[in-house]
Amino acid sequence: MNKIPLKEQSIVLIGFMGVGKTTIGQAVAQKLYRDFIDIDEVIERRFQMPPKDIFAKYGEAVFRQHEKEIISEMCHKKLKVISLGGGAFLQKEIQDICLATTTIFFLDLTWDKWKDRIGLLIDSRPVLQGKNMDEIKQLFDDRQPIYEQHHSRVLTDDQEVEEVADYIVDSLKLAWELYA
Ligand SMILES: Nc1ncnc2c1ncn2[C@@H]1O[C@H](COP(=O)(O)OP(=O)(O)OP(=O)(O)O)[C@@H](O)[C@H]1O
Ligand SMILES: O=C(O)C1=C[C@@H](O)[C@@H](O)[C@H](O)C1
Ligand SMILES: [Mg+2]
């Protein structure tokens, strides 16, 4: 299959849960006049229930299978902004297909800043259920290597959603000009 030209590739946002992939992805899509796709929302529509209930009813493996199927399909679409779930890059096949077909931004956030956000996440994110803070920190650390597969990293500490989105759009425009 021919490689999609850089400017037409979909933009994919990765990173640990709660770093802002969904929120910032929506803002980037709006600024670029592109459609926004949130993979968790696509899965939620398919099952008619949120990820937490899918995990509880069918198990994580079923969620991951659908996640892989949907991402593999979406990555081939042009001109989208796609936010992945925080655990999607645990699957090597997902890493490989995203690297080959899209432009990947890793939204990074230090643990110190992330832990202030836990109240926003604890009730809805199934992988946080039943874990104490030490175990969550361990998960945060264990997950970092999977996000090393990216094209560009953005440290989001103390950055407003709009600031991060503007940074991503500016760096894309620069890359599109440089590699046109
Ligand atoms: N830059 C930011 N500054 C402050 N709050 C933020 C920022 N980005 C996101 N948030 C808030 O953090 C929470 C989690 O954001 P969001 O749902 O976008 O994360 P996510 O990376 O998509 O998580 P998941 O991997 O679980 O889908 C939301 O309440 C959102 O409003
Ligand atoms: O980090 C994770 O493993 C997850 C993050 C969310 O985006 C959802 O994809 C789901 O709750 C699993
Ligand atoms: Mg999200």
UniProtKB/TrEMBL annotation:
Keywords: Amino-acid biosynthesis, Aromatic amino acid biosynthesis, ATP-binding, Cytoplasm, Kinase, Magnesium, Metal-binding, Nucleotide-binding, Transferase
Pathway(s) where this gene product acts: Metabolic intermediate biosynthesis; chorismate biosynthesis; chorismate from D-erythrose 4-phosphate and phosphoenolpyruvate: step 5/7
Binding-site list for ATP: G18, V19, G20, K21, T22, T23, R125, Q159
Iron is among the record's keywords: no
Primary subcellular site in the record, as a coarse category: cytoplasm
Catalysed reactions listed for this entry: shikimate + ATP = 3-phosphoshikimate + ADP + H(+)
Compartment(s) of residence: Cytoplasm
GO molecular-function terms, A-Z: ATP binding; magnesium ion binding; shikimate kinase activity
Cited CDD domains: SK
Binding-site list for Mg(2+): T22
Top-level EC class: transferase
GO biological process annotation, one example: aromatic amino acid family biosynthetic process
Cofactor binding annotation: Binds 1 Mg(2+) ion per subunit.
UniProt-listed SUPFAM superfamilies: P-loop containing nucleoside triphosphate hydrolases (SSF52540)
Enzyme Commission number(s) from the entry: 2.7.1.71
Subunit record text: Monomer.
Known function: Catalyzes the specific phosphorylation of the 3-hydroxyl group of shikimic acid using ATP as a cosubstrate.
Protein name per the record: Shikimate kinase
Species, as recorded: Oceanobacillus sojae
